Amino acid sequence: MIEQIYNYFTNEILYLWVNIGVLPFWLLIIFFPQSNLCKYLATSILPIFILSGTYMFIVYKAYLGSFDFDNNFSLYLGLNYISELFKDDYYLLMFWIHFISINLFAGGWILKDAQKLFVNKILLAFPLVITYLIGPIGIFIYWIIRIFYAKRLNLYD
Length: 157
Description:
The chain has helices spanning about 1-10, 10-30, 35-40, 45-65, 80-85, 90-115, 120-135, 135-150. By secondary structure, it is mostly helical. It is globular.
């Protein structure tokens, strides 16, 4: 039974499940930000816990597949080195889950911060969608909106 589950979750299947799996959390954050479901599911530790478990499973599979973990540190040596790392499916999947997790965490933070400042939910949807797609740009757009709602420019809040 465990072997069947292990064999089912190929890198391609994991990639599809991760992409489909984060959508309900993002839909809750964007369309139902005030709901208890959003509070207890999307902006809690639950999605990060699930994505962390998936990440650990991929690391385990990579370890069994003789992945060269020491080579990961070469990513700091230049673009050529990082492009070599991205040719490996395990590394690419680990990076993708890292990206998805950080964007989801940032989306949850944006939502909680916006609720404290009473940011208009319709206006908030735009930076949230952009954060889902392009994390740092969405955070920047929210920061610009936040300046007007907080009525102050604060770089460390």
